[in-house]
Design a protein that fits this description.
This protein is α/β, with parallel strands linked by helices. It has 4 domains: 46 residues, ADC-like domains (N-terminal domain of TfIIb, Single Sheet), CATH 2.20.25.90; 259 residues, Rossmann fold (3-Layer(aba) Sandwich), CATH 3.40.50; 190 residues, Dimethylsulfoxide Reductase, domain 2 (3-Layer(aba) Sandwich); 110 residues, Barwin-like endoglucanases, CATH 2.40.40.20. Helix content is 31%, strand content 19%. A 7-stranded mixed sheet has the order 5-4-18-17-16-6-7, with helices on both faces. The relative contact order is 0.16.
C-alpha cells in the first residue's frame, strides 16, 4: 500500500513548524520534513523529531472513566455525558452558573478553544481561561495597552533582517531552536546580538553582549537603557511626535535611573548598560525577543510595557527587522487567546466588561444574555475552588496539579470540588483527581487550525485515528453541549472556523479553503486580503492612532532571599522537555537525555554547601520541599539556583504571588534553601 503524506503542525512550542506524517494502513510510520515551510524551512528540533513517539504510548487514555473509590472504572460515553450533565446542572441550580469554571487548552485547535469558551458562556459562567495565564498573560495586557494588539509585531523570518537583536528573558536556543536559526542568520550577516538573562545559557553563547542580571530586575535594566537613550539623544523624536503619547512622563520617570544606580539593582555593570542602550537605539533596525523570563513575574505587565517603551522611543516598530516579539511556549497559546479563552476577553479581544461585547455575541450566538466579565483567571479559579466559591471545573488538556505554583494547594483545592471533569490524552496528575476523565485525540488524530507565535494561522490535517474510543476535543465538546441542552451542532472544524470568520474580524478572511493553499497571518479581514505580517506600519489601533508610552517603576520581586532561605530559585525549560512533561516524558528518546529533576548550583555555593555534582539534594521553600540532583555550573550567579519545571516537584516550591493586572504567578523568583540529602 502506498504511503500517504499528511501535512501537520508540530504539537510543541509556538514556532509552528510544519512537517508531514507518513501514513500507511492507517498507522503513522514516519515523518518527512517540509522544506517549503516559511518558518522551519524543513528543520525540526529534538522534540519535533520525536513527536510521533507518544502517540501510541501504553498510557494513552482510550475510554471514558469515572472515579470509583481510590481508582477508576471504564464507562461508556453515554454514561460519562450523563454524569457531566447532571453534575454541572446540579451545581448551576444550587450555586448559579458562577459556581462552574472552564480551563481551555493551548494545545487544542482554534476551533476547540472557541467552543470551550462558548460553552462556558452559554452556560452562564464568565469563568473561562487558558494556560496563557501562566506564561504570556502580561503580553496580552501590556501589548494591548501600549501597542493595541496582543501579538508579535513582525514575522519570524523577519528576524534575519534585524541589525540589532535584543533577547531578554528567553533561552530560545533551547526553547525555540528553530527560531534561533533566524538569529544566527542575522548574526552571521553582521547583526549585534544582546542577551539579558540571569543564567548563562546556550542563547547567551551567541551574544556580542551578555547582561547577566539578578532575577526580577528586568524593569530596572530596561529603565536604565531608556535613561541612556533619552539622555544621549538617541530617541527618534519624529516617530515619537507622530505616533505616540506619554513620552514626557517616561522621560520624568527614568531621569534617576542612571546606569550606576541600575547597576546596583541588577548586578549588570554600568558600562554594559550603556553599551546595550546605544547598540539597540543606534541600529537602523532593532528587534526585541522575549519569553517567560519577562512575563512570569509579579511585575510581568510592567516588564512588557517597559519593552514596548524602548521600541517606541527609538521608532523600532512597523518596519522589517524591527518589532516586539513575544515567543509563545505552546503551539496554540496565541490562538487560544485570540479565540477568547480568557477571563477578561471574548473572541477577538473584545473586553468582557463592555456591554457592547455582550450585545454583539448575544446576537451572534442567538441567545438573550451572556455573562459579563471579567471572570476568574486560572490561578483565581484554584483559590475559589479552595474557598468553595467554585464547585465544578471542566479542564481540557491542561495539568494545573503539576504546572500551577504551590501545587500542593492545587491538589487540595481540586479534591474538594463537587465535580472535576478532565479531558486529556494521558492520566495526568490533574486527571488522577477527577471524577470523570474523557479521552482526547492528540495532534495527529484530529484536524483544525493553529496560530503560532507570529500570528500565522495554519491548518493541521488528521493523519490517523485516535486509540480506542477516544475522540477529538471538538467532538467531545459538541456532545457535552448537546447533553446540557445547547445547540452545539458542528460537524467538523471547518464549520466552527466559518463561525470564527463571522465573529472575529482579524480572522474573517482566514477560511479553510485558503488555509489549504498556504498559511495566513492575522489580521486578515477579508477573503482577498493577503494577511498582515508586520503590524503598526500605518499607526496603532488606539486612541488617535497613537501608541501609549506607559512609564513603569522598578518594584522588587514579591519574595527575596533571607537568612532562612538564602537562595533565589528561578525556573524554566530545557531543550528536550515541554511544559509539565506529559508528552516528552513519554517519548523514550527525549527521556533518555533528561530523565530526572535537577537543580543548577553555582560551584562556589556548592562548595559552601558541601554538595558535589550529582549529589541528591533537598530544595525547600516556604511552600514545601522536593528532591533533585545537583548540577554544578558557573552559568548561574552565586545565590541563584535554577530548576526545570517539566518534572513533578518543581512547582511544589514556587510562590503564589501574582502580577496585580495579568494575574500571572511569579514562577521566576522564589526564596529557597538547599541541603545535601544524607
Amino acid at each position: 500500500m502506498t504511503k500517504v503524506l499528511v501535512p501537520t503542525v508540530c504539537p510543541y512550542c509556538g514556532a509552528g513548524c510544519g512537517f508531514f506524517v507518513s501514513v500507511e494502513r492507517g498507522k503513522a510510520v514516519g515523518m518527512e520534513y517540509m522544506p517549503g515551510h516559511p518558518v522551519s524551512e524543513g528543520a525540526l528540533c529534538s522534540k519535533g523529531n520525536a513527536a510521533l513517539e507518544f502517540l501510541r504510548h501504553q498510557d494513552r487514555l482510550t475510554t471514558p472513566l469515572r472515579r470509583r473509590g481510590e481508582g477508576f472504572a471504564r464507562i461508556s460515553w453515554e454514561e460519562a455525558l450523563g454524569l457531566i450533565a447532571r453534575g454541572l446542572g446540579d451545581v448551576i441550580r444550587r450555586d448559579g452558573p458562577g459556581g462552574v469554571a472552564f480551563l481551555a487548552s493551548s494545545k487544542c485547535t482554534n476551533e476547540e478553544n472557541y467552543l470551550i469558551e462558548k460553552l462556558a458562556r452559554l452556560l452562564g459562567t464568565p469563568h473561562v481561561d487558558n494556560c496563557a495565564r501562566l506564561c504570556h498573560a502580561p503580553s496580552v495586557v501590556g501589548l494591548n495597552r501600549t501597542l493595541g494588539a496582543a501579538g508579535m509585531t513582525n514575522p519570524i523570518p523577519d528576524i534575519a533582517s534585524s541589525r540589532c537583536i535584543f533577547i531578554i528573558g528567553s533561552n530560545l536556543a533551547e526553547n525555540h531552536p528553530v527560531i534561533a536559526r533566524w538569529v544566527h542568520r542575522a548574526h552571521d550577516d553582521g547583526a549585534v546580538v544582546i542577551v539579558a538573562d540571569p543564567r548563562e545559557t546556550h542563547t547567551s553563547w551567541v551574544a556580542d553582549l551578555f547582561l547577566q542580571l539578578t532575577p526580577g530586575t528586568d524593569v530596572a535594566l530596561l529603565s536604565g537603557m531608556a535613561h541612556v537613550i533619552i539622555k544621549e539623544g538617541l530617541i527618534d523624536g519624529d516617530y515619537i511626535a507622530r505616533n505616540t503619547s506619554g513620552f514626557e512622563a517616561l522621560r520624568e520617570s527614568v531621569k534617576d535611573s542612571s546606569p550606576e544606580r541600575i547597576s546596583e539593582i541588577t548586578g549588570v555593570s554600568p558600562d554594559d548598560i550603556v553599551r546595550a542602550a546605544r547598540a539597540y537605539a543606534s541600529s537602523p533596525a532593532s528587534s526585541i525577543l522575549y519569553s517567560m523570563g519577562i512575563t512570569q513575574h509579579s511585575t510581568g505587565t510592567d516588564n512588557v510595557q517597559a519593552i514596548s517603551n524602548l521600541a517606541l522611543i527609538t521608532g523600532h516598530l512597523g518596519r522589517p527587522g524591527t518589532g516586539v516579539m513575544p515567543l509563545r511556549g505552546q503551539n496554540n497559546v496565541q490562538g487560544a487567546c485570540d479565540m477568547g479563552a480568557l477571563a477578561e476577553f471574548y473572541p477577538g479581544y473584545r473586553r468582557a466588561d463592555d456591554p457592547e461585547t455582550i450585545g454583539y455575541f448575544s446576537s451572534a450566538w442567538g441567545v438573550p444574555a451572556l455573562p459579563k466579565g471579567p471572570g476568574l483567571t486560572a490561578a483565581e479559579m484554584i483559590g475559589a475552588a479552595a474557598s468553595g466559591d467554585i464547585r465544578a471545573m471542566y479542564i481540557v488538556g491542561e495539568d494545573p496539579a503539576n504546572s500551577d505554583p504551590s501545587s500542593q494547594n492545587v491538589h487540595r483545592a481540586l479534591e474538594g470540588l463537587d465535580l472535576l471533569v478532565v479531558q486529556d490524552i494521558f492520566m495526568t496528575a490533574t486527571a488522577k483527581l477527577a471524577d470523570v476523565v474523557l479521552p482526547g485525540a492528540a495532534w495527529a488524530e484530529k484536524e483544525g487550525s493553529f496560530t503560532n507565535t507570529e500570528r500565522r494561522v495554519q491548518w493541521s490535517s488528521k493523519a490517523i485515528d485516535p486509540p480506542g474510543s477516544a475522540l477529538s476535543d471538538l467532538e467531545t465538546l459538541c456532545m457535552v453541549g448537546r447533553a446540557l441542552g445547547l445547540e452545539f451542532a458542528y460537524p467538523d472544524a471547518a464549520s466552527v472556523l466559518e463561525e470564527i470568520n463571522r465573529t472575529v474580524p482579524s480572522y474573517a478572511g482566514i477560511t479553510r479553503d485558503r488555509l489549504r493553499e498556504s498559511s495566513l497571518i492575522w489580521p486578515c479581514p477579508t477573503t482577498d486580503h493577503p494577511g498582515t505580517p508586520i503590524l503598526h506600519s500605518a499607526g496603532f489601533k488606539l486612541a488617535g492612532g497613537r501608541a501609549s508610552i506607559v512609564p513603569v517603576s522598578y518594584r522588587p520581586a514579591a519574595e527575596g532571599a533571607s537568612w532562612d532561605y538564602p537562595f533565589i530559585l528561578t525556573t524554566g525549560r530545557v531543550a528536550v522537555h515541554h511544559n509539565a512533561g506529559s508528552m516528552t516524558r513519554r517519548s523514550p528518546s527525549l527521556l533518555r537525555r533528561e530523565p530526572d529533576l535537577y537543580v543548577e548550583i553555582n560551584t562556589a555555593d556548592a562548595l559552601r554547601l558541601r554538595v558535589a555534582d550529582g549529589d541528591e539534594v533537598i530544595v525547600t521553600t516556604p511552600r514545601g520541599e522536593t528532591e533533585a540532583y545537583a548540577r554544578l555550573t558557573e552559568g548561574v550567579k552565586t545565590g541563584v539556583v535554577f530548576m526545570p519545571f517539566h518534572f513533578p516537584g518543581t512547582n511544589l516550591l514556587t510562590t503564589e504571588a501574582t502580577d496585580p493586572e495579568a494575574r500571572i504567578p511569579e514562577f521566576k523568583v522564589s526564596a529557597c534553601k538547599i541541603v545535601r540529602r544524607d
